[in-house]
Amino acid sequence: MRPYGYTVDRKATIADxxxxxxxxxxxxxxxxxxxxxxxxxxxQGIKTYNGxxxxxxxxxxxxxxxxxxxxxxxxxxxHDKLKEILTDPSRRQSHRYELAHVLTGGYVRxxxxxxxxxxxxxxxxxxxxxxxxxxxRIGAPALEAYIRDLVFSLLTTPQTRAGLRRAESRAxxxxxxxxxxxxxxxxxxxxxxxxxxxxxxxxxLSREHQRLTAAANRERRRLAAxxxxxxxxxxxxxxxxxxxxxxxxxxxLLGLVLDHVxxxxxxxxxxxxxxxxxxxxxxxxxxxxxxNP
Length: 293
Ligand SMILES: [Zn+2]
Prior knowledge:
The protein is mainly alpha-helical. It has helices at about 15-30, 35-45, 55-65, 65-70, 75-85, 90-100, 140-155, 160-165, 165-195, 200-230, 235-245, 245-255, and strands at about 110, 120, 125, 135-140, 260-265, 280-285. The strands form 2 sheets. Strands 1-5-6 form a 3-stranded mixed beta sheet, with no helix packed on it. Strands 2-3-4 form a 3-stranded antiparallel beta sheet. A hairpin with a 2-residue loop joins β2 and β3 (about 125). Bound molecules: zinc ion (ZN). Zinc ion binds near residues 112, 115, 126 and 133.
């Protein structure tokens, strides 16, 4: 039996599998849940090396295998952060909510510590240490409605609609860049194993590769989500679509334009909560549609 991502002698990476590991690590660090990553691997038809479907536990074991650090596939700092995130007990409890709430998994981030906020009760909350700082919380229903309306108005501008129409060519460009990077990484793995390139050089390449993988996956997801959009694209058709859409599809729709929203702490805790969103607490970070991979 060989470790996923590596040859039997544990000395070289297997490019396709190293890609899966690198991408999944980047996504966990970005706040995505193991369950959601496993699901998207299964959706893409990527199998474990035994040919099975991915499950959270197996994926977790692979992402945390020490060989990833020993071979430089992941930096020590990232590995430590990953370990902290994946072994946080509050993460397990929040699991069953993760799919039910449209902004979980990295869309809502703490304005103090930048960690992904989790769904608790009827709020999004920054998880307690070590996963987060535990100091920020915001009501969920009003925030979700506010973000949904912002996304609707952005999606229906002429600029965004034109940008979405170019989704296919962007996905192709991102795939091409990733393919070239795959070639570079495979060669670099050989060079690194032979001692021809240094560890920092290997780490830099591997990080660049993670970035391109994330970009290509983002464009692929975007392209898939574009296909689900109602036609014509207006606030009204979107609202009708939203009411019927599944949480997964809703999340895909948000992901067309929304990177994440940062939540600042409430300025005055004593102020009675009237159920609306204090927009001054929010900083919305949009994706750039024409971003180069
Ligand atoms: Zn925090």
